[in-house]
Amino acid sequence: MHRNRTRHSMEQQFVELIQEPSGEFENFHRMSLTDFNYLLSKVLPLISKQDTHLREAIPAKIRLAVTLRFLATGDSFKSLHYLFKISSQLISKIVVDVCKALNDVLKDEIKMPVNEQQWLEVENGFKNNFPHAVGVIDGKHIIIQCPDNSGSEYFNYKKTFSIVLLALVDCNYKLMYANIGSQGRISDGGVFKKSSLWQKISSETLNLPKPRSLSSADKANIPYVFLADGAFALHNNIMKPYPGTHNIGSPKRIFNTRLSRSRVVVENVFGILANRFRIFKKPIDINIDTVPIIIMTCLLLHNFLRKSNNSSHIYMPPGIVDTYDENGVLFQPGTWRQNVDKNCALRNIAQIPRRSTLSATQIRDHFAEYLFRNN
């Protein structure tokens, strides 16, 4: 099989894929040919190899195609070996090299706002449902095969092995921040407390807008906040739901409903990732040092494809995300929910009760009363 592989045969295989009239290329790589060629032009200097006197080098476009196919399907290196006529050992090296190159050229795809005006632009997407919200924070366990000699370091409360992904997203399903690689035994909140995002929040160096009133009729100055679930601690800049059940129409019930409705955007982001990058369809069985590199590639590609005029409709086809009516009631669940099963590598984090400061509690109560009055 390998002896029959030539540069001409690989080029021909690529040409045949492009010429398929049924959109096979887009399905094969989760992007348009235009964006594929754009990425190829960016990574070409980083992934090209020299021919040797024994064998011609694998062309850069094939290296990129192999990597994107691996991320899109989660196929084993052995399966890709039969498809591309490249040895499993070489594919494992190609995937890592290309992912590192993609991470380098796409590194600016995930970035946080740097000034007050940019934060207000993010808040603009949330304010009709939850004023002063400037993003949604959440985390997922990414299930992996047990790393060699790791002991209980990656062993989590679900009795699986994992690393934790912490993400901050905006209302347009784009990531603004990602932290990858903390051991699975650490809780969501514990990962957050060790992150650079928390350091900037606690040191007030995020350049968030100054606290101001929620409306002209409201005199209290309320800070801008990130929305989270019960795994995080309540903070002046972090709002999470009230615990327990509450009467329909009560301020606490309305607060929880509004917060949950805004937080669904991060559920959709993780659902899209699991649906479009099938590397997440089952526990990831590759070297533990490589897992964060591959995950970051998926996150960067998510943002890149989300904003692309050529590939957004391919990566996020109509109906893939949850649809709500004008009253904010779920109208149609996203199709990603039908294609992500319980064996998915992305799993929820445990919610742990945490003691809150008085000021954070008062801010949450003020939000609840305001949302109740304006419901």
From TrEMBL:
<keyword id="KW-0540">Nuclease</keyword>
<keyword id="KW-0539">Nucleus</keyword>
<keyword id="KW-0378">Hydrolase</keyword>
<keyword id="KW-0479">Metal-binding</keyword>
<dbReference type="GO" id="GO:0004518">
    <property type="term" value="F:nuclease activity"/>
</dbReference>
<dbReference type="GO" id="GO:0046872">
    <property type="term" value="F:metal ion binding"/>
</dbReference>
<dbReference type="GO" id="GO:0016787">
    <property type="term" value="F:hydrolase activity"/>
</dbReference>
<comment type="similarity">
    <text>Belongs to the HARBI1 family.</text>
</comment>
<dbReference type="InterPro" id="IPR027806">
    <property type="entry name" value="HARBI1_dom"/>
</dbReference>
<dbReference type="InterPro" id="IPR045249">
    <property type="entry name" value="HARBI1-like"/>
</dbReference>
<feature type="domain" description="DDE Tnp4">
    <location>
        <begin position="137"/>
        <end position="303"/>
    </location>
</feature>
<dbReference type="GO" id="GO:0005634">
    <property type="term" value="C:nucleus"/>
</dbReference>
<protein>
    <recommendedName>
        <fullName>DDE Tnp4 domain-containing protein</fullName>
    </recommendedName>
</protein>
<dbReference type="Pfam" id="PF13359">
    <property type="entry name" value="DDE_Tnp_4"/>
</dbReference>
